[in-house]
Each structure stands twice: as structure tokens, then as C-alpha cells.
Amino acid sequence: MALPYMLKHRGFPGRFPGTDFQFTVRRANPKGVTPLTRRERFADRRALDRRVDAAFMAALWGYFSDEPFERGNLDAGRLSWLFGREVVPAEEPFDPASYEAMLRIDVDRARAAFPEVFDGETAWEWEE
Predict the structure, then answer these.
(1) Distance (Å, whole) CA 67 – CA 15
(2) What is the pLDDT of residues 9-45, one digit of tens each?
(3) Domain ranges of the chain
(4) For residue 87, what are the contacts with CB-CB under 8 A and spacing of at least 6?
(5) Contact, 70 vs 12, CB < 8 A?
(6) Consecutive 10-residue runs of the chain (128 residues): their mean pLDDT?
(7) How far apart are CA 18 and CA 36, in angstroms?
(8) Residue 108 has what pLDDT?
(9) Phi-psi bin for 11: left (phi > 0), alpha (psi -120 to 50), beta?
(10) What is the CA radius of gyration of the chain?
(11) Contact between 24 and 74 (Cβ < 8 Å)
């Protein structure tokens, strides 16, 4: 059985530096595409979890800006922390279990949730 097509976003950071928090996956899941679901971010999340969310948003913003983008090899778990708030469907109907699903950043919500990403003062570790 052939794996589904999965666009690889070349140059997108693979993970948060120095951790096992991944931003991308290497290959399509042979058991099927992991669907995107909205995960709740509770106020008592660890500081590192919040930093990784901000870094992932910075990577998305740096790579795609306000343009629609294909899910491709972006990690479903990491996307799910932002999905339904800062990252929203860019098409209707939307298939949350498709590597070809189109998404976009809701810029107003992203700026409100992650001001450090948009202030231009924070340097992200993968940037040169």
C-alpha cells in the first residue's frame, strides 16, 4: 500500500533546539494520517511548553507569514496545540486528517497569544 502524499517544508525547523519537541515529521504515518484536534492549553502548563508553542508559532510565521499553507509534514501534535485558535482552516470543507489540508495563521489571535513572536525583539535559536 502506498503512503499518502506529504509535502515536506524544506528549511522549516525540525524541532525545538535541545529538546525532543518536534515540529515536523520525516515520513507519512503508515497507519494513517493523524487528525488535527484542538488541544486545550491550560494556565498551569510548564514554561517550557509555552516557550515551545511560541517558537513553533515563530517558525510558522517566519515560513508562511499570513499566506495559506499546506499541512504537509508539520507535526499534528504540535499543530494541535495551536489549531482552532491561532492556526485555523483555510478551506471549506476542511479535512483534519489530510496532509494536503490548507491552514492559515489567524494573525490577530496569534499576536494576542504570542506577542513575543511579532515584537521583532526575540531571537529564535534556529535563526541566523
Answers:
(1) 22
(2) 999 999 998 889 999 999 988 888 999 999 999 989 9
(3) 1-119
(4) 60, 79, 103, 104, 105, 106, 110
(5) no
(6) 82 92 92 93 92 95 96 96 97 95 97 91 60
(7) 25
(8) 97
(9) left
(10) 14
(11) yes
| Block residue for cell numbers 504540535 | 78
Q: What are phi and psi of 87, to 5 degrees?
A: -120, 125
The model's pTM: 0.91
DSSP-derived 3-state class of residue 85: coil
Q: H/E element holding 104? A: strand 102-105
- CA 17 to CA 39: how far, in whole Å? 23
Q: Which of 6, 100, 113, 99 is nearest to 56 (CA)?
A: 113
**Selection from 66, 67, 80 nearest residue 33 by Cα:** 80
- Chain CA centroid to CA 38, Å: 12
Residues in the chain: 128
Q: Helix or strand or coil: residue 74?
A: strand
Q: CA–CA separation, 101 vs 9, rounded Å?
A: 14
